[in-house]
Structures are given as structure tokens and as C-alpha cells.
Amino acid sequence: MDDPAYGMNTPPRERGVPPGAQSVRFGSSPTLSVVVASGRARPVLDRCLAAVLPQCRAREAELIVARAGPPDEVAELGNTYPSVLFVAAPAGTPAPALRALGAANALGDIVALVEDDRVPPADWLEQIATARGRRP
């Protein structure tokens, strides 16, 4: 299409986007998003991110943290982890609402959910990506 504005205001179905998708994917491998539901103390989140961030980099997965806390704290986290998308939520937001908030911002074909008090194993995302190809 020669029109540079095509896609800006064009309905998704006219752009060939499947129902429910936000954009067209050009590769054959599924894209991954990781959503961390976070409302605990900063060191707890730091441990989780230390385990998840290298896996996201290796698999080119997007990483989203839905963080319950003051906006200034969420902004500071964004400065500390510039490759992570932080989505702010009011303090005390329960984990299910944080997961939903993070998932609503995810663009991946597969969305992996984890809470900040968990430290996934080093091959967690690899297991998720390869499990897609296996059938029971």
C-alpha cells in the first residue's frame, strides 16, 4: 500500500488482522509476553525480574509489570528497568486485577503470568514456547 496513513485509521479487519489481534504478525513463531503482577516490596520484585528479564531478552519477549503502588515508585522502576513496560495500579490492587491489567497491555500471542514473589526457573519461557508445539 502506498498510502503512509493506511493502518492508522483503517479497521483491523481491513488490514488483515485476525479478530482479537492488535496487529499482523509476520513470523511463524509465536510472540511471547510476560506479565508480572507486583504489589510486594521492591526487593521481591527485583529478584523476580533478575530471573525473568534475561529470558525475555533471549526470546525477544515483551515484559510487562503491573505494579500496585505510588506513581512515583512506578516511574522510578521504569527508570531502573527501561526495557520493561510498567503499568501503574492503585496500592492494594489484588493480584487477579494486576494480572488482568498487565494482560490487557500485552501484545504477544502467548501471555505468561507470574507474581513477583516467584522466581521462575531459567528455562521457563523456553518450556512455554516449546509446549505450544506439543499436543496431548
List keywords for this structure.
136 residues; alpha/beta; Spore Coat Polysaccharide Biosynthesis Protein SpsA, Chain A; four-stranded parallel beta sheet; 34% helix; 18% strand
Structure description:
The N and C termini lie far apart (42 Å). The chain is of the alpha/beta class and 136 residues long. The protein is 34% helix and 18% strand. The chain is built from four helices and four strands; from the N terminus they run E-H-E-H-E-H-E-H. It has a four-stranded parallel β-sheet with strand order 3-2-1-4, sandwiched between helices. It has a single domain, classed as Spore Coat Polysaccharide Biosynthesis Protein SpsA, Chain A, CATH 3.90.550.
The whole-angstrom Rg is 17 Å
Mean pLDDT: 84
Helicity level: 25-40%
Unreliable runs, pLDDT <50, ≥5 residues? Answer: 1-18
How far apart are the termini? 42 Å
Short description:
By secondary structure, this protein is an alpha/beta fold. It has helices at residues 42-59, 71-80, 95-104, 124-131; strands at 32-38, 62-68, 85-89, 110-115.
